[in-house]
Amino acid sequence: MAKVLSNKSSRQSRRATKRNRKKRPSQSADMLVNFLMLALSVLVLTFIWSFWNRHTNNRTVAEEMRYYAEVPEDVTPQTLIAEKIYNNISVEILNGCGVSGLAALFKEIVHQKTFDVLNTENAAHFQYENTLIIVRTDKTEAAYKLAEELGISRERVQIDKDPSLAVDITMIIGHDYKSVPAYQEKKS
Q1: What is the pTM of this model?
Q2: Given CB 3.0 to 4.6 Å as the disulfide criterion, which of 61, 106, 150, 159 pairs with 182?
């Protein structure tokens, strides 16, 4: 009888062991979870260190900009603004003669003259004989200055105020673009 009881108890213990094995997760899954937790911990610590390092530096904003943009030390916001003579004058350039790429070329020319060019596109038609500068706001002197910078006569400056447009000056390139001194200078 003792033998029967021992067989019976050994079968029960084997069944219990099999059940426990099924319920217990494998060691490889435990190792994977531990590795992921370690990797996430390192990542979080790296972010915390980066944040702390960035916000504890005693550099000014200008020094920070120079550091990232590699701007020379003698350049300051004031010197950049001082070089920009017409920084508040916005210009749109319309191609009124149909020559491809001409508005982009005049954009470079006008931009070199320190005016801000907001957009370039085709005019309503391509039958403009003369290059025109049209004043859209109260900045008439700036339009005359643009005409002078480009070498266009003051008679080609027209005043047609239109506050609905988002520009101060509209320049329409006509078929006489080759006679504009700034164009000739750029091409030579």
Answers
A1: 0.56
A2: 150
Same domain, 84 and 128: yes
Tell me: the pLDDT tens digits for 162-183? 888 889 999 999 999 999 999 9
- What digits encode the pLDDT tens for the residues 93-108? 999 999 999 999 999 9
Sequential DSSP letters for the chain: -HHHHHHHHHHHHHHHHHHHHHHSPPHHHHHHHHHHHHHHHHHHHHHHHHHHHHHH----HHHHHHHHHT--TT--HHHHHHH-TEEEEEEEEEE-S--TTHHHHHHHHHHHTTEEEEEEEE-S-S---S-EEEE-SS-HHHHHHHHHHHT--GGGEEE---TTSS-SEEEEE-TTGGG-HHHHHHH-
